[in-house]
From TrEMBL:
Compartments where located: Cytoplasm
Record motif 'HIGH' region, residues: 39-49
One Pfam match: tRNA-synt_1c_C
InterPro entries tied to this protein: aa-tRNA-synth_I_CS (IPR001412), Gln-tRNA-synth (IPR004514), Gln/Glu-tRNA_Ligase (IPR050132), Gln_tRNA_ligase_bac (IPR022861), Glu/Gln-tRNA-synth (IPR000924), Glu/Gln-tRNA-synth_Ib_cat-dom (IPR020058), Glu/Gln-tRNA-synth_Ib_codon-bd (IPR020059), Glu_tRNA_lig_a-bdl (IPR020061)
Entry's Gene Ontology cellular component terms: cytosol
Protein species of origin: Bullifex porci
Annotated protein name in UniProt: Glutamine--tRNA ligase
Reaction(s) catalysed (UniProt annotation): tRNA(Gln) + L-glutamine + ATP = L-glutaminyl-tRNA(Gln) + AMP + diphosphate
Known EC number: 6.1.1.18
Positions contributing to ATP binding: E40, P41, N42, T236, R266, L267, M274, S275, K276
Length: 567
């Protein structure tokens, strides 16, 4: 597991040490740090990208430099403007901005093509007719060197002609590939004549049908960094073996700026998948409702679920920047979410599994109001009023006809406190034809208003409640982890086997304080004893409120029930 650090007075990470040394020794052009965040727009960003976003934009902010947003749009078959727009929205949600520095790999297609032509003319690249399967066979293995393609010594003039004809669309996909002529015996398999261009007939989101050949990532990415004068190209550890290819590309004659690549450990969290391909499969096959499903580990998903940007930035700061891969516990992320929401969430009472209470000695038709603090952690949060009347709802689990040992909530003859309101005592019950309790008749102590009595007697149990006739009725969605295994698919080889069947439980009619009817998207709430919630940004509308559970409370009633043996 990665070492967890606090965000206060933390030591410099290894990248910060490199940057500070570069600045102290004036190695950077104009002594300016220039980073970039370069996602491929082939899906929505996930939580793992938050670490990279915060690192790249954060370093630029800390050292008064700049961070570019560059969309690596070199694979038009998998890319879409929807993804591009979502990426921008996610970065802005986290509080970062790239200003005028928005770039695309496709901005450099003409330059990349010219560089490829120059490599051919210099005898450093050739057009290869090997199929993908043959190329893999010729490439060798990690322990055996590759062997030269029969086309490796094709004459320069023929290479030029074929490459131009590839560009003109004269050949089908897979017929030819442009490859760099480096070293088929290199111990680094990425240096064994890597592909530079392939034929692809797909309409590009930005360039349309102008091109039918597209540059490969290992060729495009480093040259794009060089063109943009990036000083520190920061990527995750899986690109460490690609660094020689990066250095080769940035050393091509005519490239004036030489950036440097540095690798850090990506963010891995147990119970979550961080693969766009697998996440896309979940979306396309309706295992979830979309990329922004609150169970998805996408930035749009956690935003819709109610995670705040501050909590996610705190989370990645606590994880830190390391050189060694590890797995972070899901509970740390939820801890950061709770820590943040505890400070900002408005407290409301909500009853999710209602049991009706009728206070027999309370006057018919009378309604009175109690004042509740919006957030005890925030003295400036204000207060709101809660309606109280003869007919209330409490949680069904807060009543037991035959109590077990240690149970301190409502049962026949027992007195409890209703939060903010009065002491009540259960007197009798009503049942339906199946023997289920449907109503509890109680009496209240008028002298206990506000939760105190003249004789200062105390009760052990306190329940939250909602006025039956003056409240907000809403749909509540109880979200949990999408997968039930810490490492989805580890045992069976199929991550779908570990999908959690209880990852979403819908409560069609929950009863919440009247205050909730004016709740806005972007507001945070703690439903007392039930968890943290937010207004659903997609399905809530006037006349139909939908609340999503962001996370449970730290000390849940479920733990207490388990301790007492209550099912």
């Amino acid at each position: 597991m990665e070492e967890i650090k606090t965000t206060e007075d933390r030591p410099l990470n290894f990248i910060e040490k490199i940057i500070e040394d570069d600045l102290a020794n004036h190695r950077l052009p104009n002594d300016t740090v220039v980073t970039r965040f370069p996602p491929e727009p082939n899906g929505y960003l996930h939580i793992g990208h938050i670490k990279s976003i915060c690192l790249n934009f954060g370093l630029a902010e800390k050292y008064h430099g700049r961070c570019h947003l560059r969309l690596d749009d070199t694979n038009p078959a998998k890319e879409d403007m929807e993804y591009i727009n979502s990426i921008k929205e996610d970065i802005h949600w986290l509080g970062f901005d790239w200003g005028k520095h928005e770039y695309y790999a496709s901005d450099y297609y003409d330059q990349l093509f010219e560089i490829a032509v120059r490599l051919i003319k210099e005898g450093k690249a050739y057009v290869d007719s090997l199929s993908a399967e043959e190329m893999k066979e010729y490439r060798g293995t990690l322990t055996e060197p590759g062997k030269n393609s029969p086309d490796r010594d094709r004459p320069i003039e023929e290479n030029l002609r074929l490459f131009m004809e590839m560009k003109e669309g004269k050949y089908p996909e897979g017929a030819y590939t442009l490859r760099a002529k480096i070293d088929m015996a290199s111990p680094n398999i990425n240096m064994r004549d890597p592909a530079l261009y392939r034929i692809k007939y797909a309409t590009h989101p930005r360039t349309g049908d102008k091109w039918c050949i597209y540059p490969m990532y290992d060729f495009t990415h480093p040259i794009s960094d060089a063109i943009e004068n990036i000083t520190h190209s920061i990527c995750t550890l899986e690109f460490e073996d690609h660094r020689p290819a990066y250095d080769w590309a940035t050393s091509i004659d005519g490239i004036e700026h030489t950036p440097h690549q540095y690798e850090f450990a990506r963010l891995n969290i147990n119970y979550l998948l961080m693969s766009k391909r697998k996440l896309l499969y979940l979306v396309n096959n309706n295992f979830v409702t979309g990329w922004d499903d609150p169970r998805m580990p996408t930035i749009s998903g956690v935003r819709r679920r109610g995670y705040s940007p501050e909590s996610m930035k705190d989370f990645v700061a606590r994880v830190g920047v390391a050189k060694v891969e590890g797995v972070v516990d899901y509970s740390l992320m939820e801890f950061c979410v709770r820590e943040d929401l505890n400070k900002r969430a408005e407290r409301l009472m909500a009853v999710l599994d209602p049991l009706e209470i009728e206070i027999d000695n309370y006057p018919d038709g009378k309604v009175e109001y109690f004042t509740a603090e919006n957030n005890v952690e925030d003295p400036n949060s204000g207060t709101h009023e809660i309606a109280f009347s003869k007919h209330l709802y409490i949680e069904r689990e807060d009543f037991m006809e035959v109590p077990v040992k240690g149970y301190h909530r409502l049962y026949p003859g027992n007195e409890i406190r209703l939060k903010y309101a009065y002491y009540i005592t259960a007197q009798s019950i009503e049942k339906d034809e199946n023997g289920n309790v449907i109503k509890v008749h109680c009496t209240y102590d008028p002298e206990s208003r506000g939760g105190d009595t003249p004789d200062k007697r105390k009760v052990k149990g306190t329940s939250h409640w909602v006025c039956r006739d003056i409240c907000t009725v809403a749909e509540v969605r109880q979200y949990d982890k999408l997968f039930k295994s810490e490492c989805p698919g580890a045992e069976t080889g199929n991550y779908l086997d570990d999908l959690n069947p209880d990852s979403l439980v819908v409560i069609p009619k929950a009863y919440i304080e009247k205050e909730a009817e004016n709740a806005k998207v972007g507001s945070y709430f703690q439903f007392i004893r039930n968890g943290y919630y937010c207004v659903d940004s997609k399905d809530s509308k006037p006349g139909k409120m939908v609340f999503n559970r962001t996370c449970t409370l730290k000390d849940s009633w479920a733990k207490q029930k388990a301790k007492m043996g209550i099912k």
